[in-house]
Amino acid sequence: MIGFIDTLDISYEVVICSNGSIDKTVELGLILERTYPQKVRFFSVKEKGVGRALKFCIPQFRYPHILSLDMDLSSDLSFITDVLAHLDTYDIVIGSKRVGTQSRKVIRKLGSGLYILITRLLLNIHFTDYSLGAKVYKKSVLERYRGLICDYGTDYVINIVYSAFHDGYRILEIPVRCFDNRVSKFNLLREGMYRYKKIFILWTFHRFHRLHR
C-alpha cells in the first residue's frame, strides 16, 4: 500500500492502532513503524474495541482527511486514487461495494443487503455501504461526532453518516471494488443481530426526539 500511495505524490501518514490484540499485531506494527518512520505511526490501546481505537486516534491524526481501510486491504487501492478528486467538495466519501463490484460469500451479500434495506425503510437514508473500510471523513466531522462512536461494535459508521446527513454535511458515495472470500473471524449471525439492533435503537432515539420537539 505504501508503494502505491508513494506514486500519487501526496502528503500522507498511515496510522495503525491495535485494540487489545493478543496476536502479533503489536509486534508487526512496531516493525512497520521502524521500517517506515516517516510514513507509519503505530499506536496500541489495551482494551478491545474498534471504536475505542478510533477515538484514541482522532487527536493523533495530522491531516484534515481520514481515509479508513480494512487491514486485509479487501477494497481495491484504486479507491484512494478515486477519492482524491472529492476531498475539497465533500465532508464524507463512502466507498460502496454494492454500487461497485464485490467478490464475497453469498451469506455476506444477503446480510448486507437486508441491512441496507432496513436502513432505508427506518432511517430514510439512501447510502448502500456502512462497513468500516473504504470511507473518508474530514477530521472535523469525526471530532464533532466523537461521542457517537461506541467503544465496542461496528455501528459507528451508520451513527456518523446518519447524523451528518441530517445536519447537512456533504456526503458522496462512489463505487469500490471488494474482494473478500475469506473465512470470517466474526460470528456473522451475532454481528448481524447486533447491527440490526443498533439500527432500531438509532431509529427509536431520533423518532423520540422528533416527537418531543
UniProtKB/TrEMBL annotation:
Domain Glycosyltransferase 2-like: 12-145
InterPro entries named among the record's database cross-references: Glyco_trans_2-like (IPR001173), Nucleotide-diphossugar_trans (IPR029044)
PANTHER family documented for this protein: DOLICHYL-PHOSPHATE BETA-GLUCOSYLTRANSFERASE, GLYCOSYL TRANSFERASE
Keyword Transferase: yes
Coiled-coil regions listed: none
Keyword hit for Transferase: yes
GO annotation (BP), single: protein N-linked glycosylation
Name used for this protein in its record: Glycosyl transferase, family 2
GO function terms (MF aspect): transferase activity
Residues annotated as transmembrane: none
Alphabetical keyword list: Transferase
Gene3D superfamilies in UniProt: Spore Coat Polysaccharide Biosynthesis Protein SpsA, Chain A
Organism, scientific name: Candidatus Jettenia ecosi
